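pinned: reference chain
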Amino acid sequence: MNARSDRDQDASPPRLIQLEGGVNFRDIGGYRAAHRTVRWGKVFRTGVLCYFTAADHKAVDQLNIRAICDLRRAEERHREPTQWTHGSAEGLSWEDGVSMPTIRAISATRPATGAGMRDSMVELYRALPTWMGPRIRGFFDCITTGRVPVVVHCAAGKDRTGIAIAVLLAALGVDRDTIIEDYLLTNAVGNFERFIEARKDSHLGLADAHQPLLTMSQDMREALFRADPDYLDAALAQIDLEYGDMENYLASCLSLDDRTIAQVRDILLE
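pinned: its structure tokens
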């Protein structure tokens, strides 16, 4: 799979924004949503934003970003603070709460194997939709208050960002197969191991003093870095299990009414 969905028209902008110090930075425009299409240049998804070069800053400044929704935990934000030179972008973040799911804690209860890490990732994805409720609601609020274009990101732009974007695309009426397709693009454009290897001092994700990421076994790293459709399916299935369906999740967990969803669609759909 290349960096552009086969659903994109030939004249469409590039989905992947090529950056020297960025990872997995891409536009979610161009996807079909019933009889409409997601607008280009309105919502961007990505990973950590603290390693941009001067050329990167020049490139992203041209996107006219109004807000940056940082889905990471407080300690991640402290360890790798966002570097964004364009002054008009508002940075948004949220409290972690008392029941914060982390892959570090979950994987500590599993065998240190690829299968153990994969099981841990499935469990993490099941826990994230409810915990992320305030974060995803804030992301939607950003859109409805006109703070677009907006960047939404976590560490790798895969897990928390993947769920937030999946919820947004579902709210826009994008079909499940396309949502999964967008999630899986990470495997084509996000070489996290190479990105982290080049920044060994950054301590990205699990690479801390207690469990250095790059010293994990190869099968564990593969399970951790992979965008596996079973991971996102686990999150979406958990939404159905806890809330009945996506519509009730939007209403119950995110407190979004039909009028607000219609407003999001008007802003983001052609």
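why pinned: Confidence is low (pLDDT under 50) at residues 1-10, 205-211. The domain at 26-268 is CATH 3.90.190.10 (Protein-Tyrosine Phosphatase; Chain A).
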